[in-house]
Automatic annotation (TrEMBL):
It comes from Taibaiella soli. GO terms for molecular function: pyridoxal phosphate binding; transaminase activity. SUPFAM superfamilies: PLP-dependent transferases (SSF53383). Keywords: Aminotransferase, Pyridoxal phosphate, Transferase. Belongs to the DegT/DnrJ/EryC1 family. GO terms for biological process: polysaccharide biosynthetic process. The modification N6-(pyridoxal phosphate)lysine is found at K186. This is L-glutamine--2-deoxy-scyllo-inosose aminotransferase KanB. The active site is at K186. It comes from the Bacteria.
Amino acid sequence: MPGYELFGAAERKEVNDVLETGILMRYGFDGMRNGIWKAKELEAEINKTFGSQYAQLVSSGTAALTTALAALGVGAGDEVIMPSFTFVASFEAVISVGAIPVLVDIDETLTLDPEAVEKAVTEKTKAIMPVHMCGSMARLDELKAICEKHDLILLEDACQAIGGKYKGKYLGTIGHAGTFSFDFVKIITCAEGGVVLTNSEDIYKKADHYSDHGHDHAGKDRGADLHPFLGYNFRISELHAAVGLAQVRRLGEFLEIQKRNHGIIFNTLKNVEGLTFRVIPDADGDTGTHLSFFLPMEDMARQAVTEFVAAGIMGNFYWYDNNWHYIRKWEHLKNGAWLHRFSEEQKKGIMHYANQPFPISDKIISRCISSSISLLWTPEQAQERADKMAAILKNVIAKNNVTA
Ligand SMILES: *Cc1c(COP(=O)(O)O)cnc(C)c1O
């Protein structure tokens, strides 16, 4: 799954270009950098690869979401509808701009259930944030229709789905804005980094300014820049961008291996009676970072995970017990143990929505296992793993059916 598995000569070459000049900052120092502009080059490469018109690199995926929200005009008191199953960064970003994350149920796509979204729309709703979890996509047509009906912003958190497509378009380029993360465990990495994608010049310009203290990057030099839009420092460094440049050029290679290994595991597990699979709105666009499947009951999923570990088969995520990806364990969100001071309105809103029951999501996530797909497996190794997993799953399902 992650790009770090295939880190090598190409990444070192790009980093060395930067080390030769010693100019580690992405802006300025024009005369000293010998024409080396890795962040700019990576932004151009991202636009070329994904067909977006504008790309703004930042220091992380969380910074990308925060920057995108600010550039989209989401702020104090606004509600952002997002799924109960995501990485915590999605709601952190919403909270950091003063807005309120409205968590709603997922369906068997493992992300937003459009019906739950429709029900959650209020007069305060400003945006819908689908999260393309575990390499695959949300029901974007339905979500887009809801956005159009209620005049809402669509912000795609595509941090885990770089290179995935929906009906021919890259995930992250379909909404008003989208984000990727290049942190160390993502499909491509630059150690720490992220990007905001958009086809709107206005949103792009604001993202550009927001991520660099408001600099409009239009002056003769940095000192002569103006600041039409307030900002912070979410800049990426040239060193990080250099790694990302090598990695984005290898994305096609990574996806090919990943999809091959994903196919091997899927073709074996699909024969296990009683096992069902995550619904994928456009199967051709799946990146294959994980194969996510459901057992008939929570107990069976727990047993299977335990037996995988006992058999030395690692990398199977049971999200229901995970501290970082599912609402059940987000006490820090539910109990309002805030580090910062928030307005009473925001705090009340956050705690209200975070403390709703999620019986539908519980029923889905408690039966779900996401099996991560490595770039390092040969086809033979993938097949061997698949066979071992299938045997365990068959056994777990049969055993429980006998006693049921
Ligand atoms: C990783 C991730 C992020 C945040 O990215 P960082 O680069 O780690 O800050 C946001 N959303 C999702 C769904 C992620 O998986």
